[in-house]
Amino acid sequence: MLKILLLIFLYLFSFAKEGVQTYGEEKNGELQIYMINNNPYDITFKYLATYDKLVPVQSLPITDSIKSKGTKLIAKYMIFDEQYMLTNNYSWVLGNKYAIHDDKYLYKLPYKDGATYQVTQGFNGSFSHNGDSQYAVDFGMEEGAEIHASRGGVVVDIKNNGFRNGANKIFATDANHITIKHDDGTYGKYVHLKFGGVMVKVGDAVKRGDFLGYSGNTGWTNGPHLHFVVFTGKDHASRKSIPIKFISSDGIVDEPIRGVKYTSVE
Ligand SMILES: [Zn+2]
To answer: Within a domain: residue 76?
Structure first.
């Protein structure tokens, strides 16, 4: 139908990752806009639009979350005239803004049982642990050290072909990583693995303590280390990192401290 041709859907500001689309459906004099998230992870998005001869039923912009492989009715417009125009704009990040972290969970240190590594940057670390990464932890670790799951879940995102590194934010997208979805809807991310060092694939179910891959020095780094962070979506442009507790051979670690060595136990 002609009026369908008048719908223009632009994917402006969409991040480089694919997998999110919108479509419109006319129903009872309304135009209903749906968003499809084809990714294996939840997303948090911001949606707005420019339009003509339509009246939005809700206020814009909208910030909301969609489950993995989910479709959601996100906006409605009353149709004023058949010759209407609509341009949808949206952006999104991985993570669900409604997830509530299980703060009682005690994470395993993200390496082999019995192995000992030193924290080189803790929560609020001055090199890079601010904003989205406020509650991340860095473990100084030689390249090739075994990384094990701090918590079980499903692998939802990986990168395995990065090889550049440097002490500058411009290298951030070169980091190899593994992202695991936990059963409370939060995500754990293991970053800076070596080229080809990711030994799991998207869709794999992993248990706490399972071997995930080999540490490295890819991305935004000033030396080989593992960066580990647990997060949820906050809005379309950022994540909210979560302060977590670990268990070590010395007991519960309420906050990992820079310069202190911790031995992994089950
Ligand atoms: Zn870090």
So the answer is: yes
**Residue given tokens 């002609």 in the structure block:** 2
How remote is the CA of residue 28 from the centroid of ligand 1, in Å?
52
Which residue is associated with the tokens 């639009």? 49
The CA 228 to ligand 1 mean position distance, Å, reads 7
The region that residue 251 occupies, defined by phi over 0 for left and psi between -120 and 50 for alpha, beta otherwise, is left
pLDDT, tens digit (0-9, with 9 covering 90-100), for 19-34 = 999 999 999 999 999 9
CATH code for the domain of 192: 2.70.70.10
pLDDT in tens, 171-184: 999 999 999 999 99
CA of 264 to the centre of ligand 1 (A): 19
Give residue 139 CA to ligand 1 midpoint distance, Å: 8
Residues 174 and 256 in one domain: yes
On whether both 163 and 249 belong to a single domain, the answer is yes
**114 and 237 belong to one structural domain:** yes
Q: Which of 125, 121, 130 is nearest to 240 (CA)?
A: 130
Residue 16, domain extent? 2-94
- 233: CA distance to ligand 1 center in Å? 18
The size of the chain, in residues, is 266
Q: The whole model's pTM is what?
A: 0.89
**In contact, 251 and 245? CB cutoff 8 Å:** no
Cα(126) to ligand 1 centroid in Å equals: 10
What is the distance in A from the centroid of ligand 1 to the CA of 32? 42
99 assigned to some structural domain: no
Q: How many structural domains does the chain have?
A: 2
Domain boundary among 51, 72, 94: 94
Calculate how far, in angstroms, residue 225's C-alpha sits from the geometric centre of ligand 1: 8
Pairing of strands 238-241, 70-79: unpaired
What's the CA-to-centroid distance between 40 and ligand 1, angstroms? 25
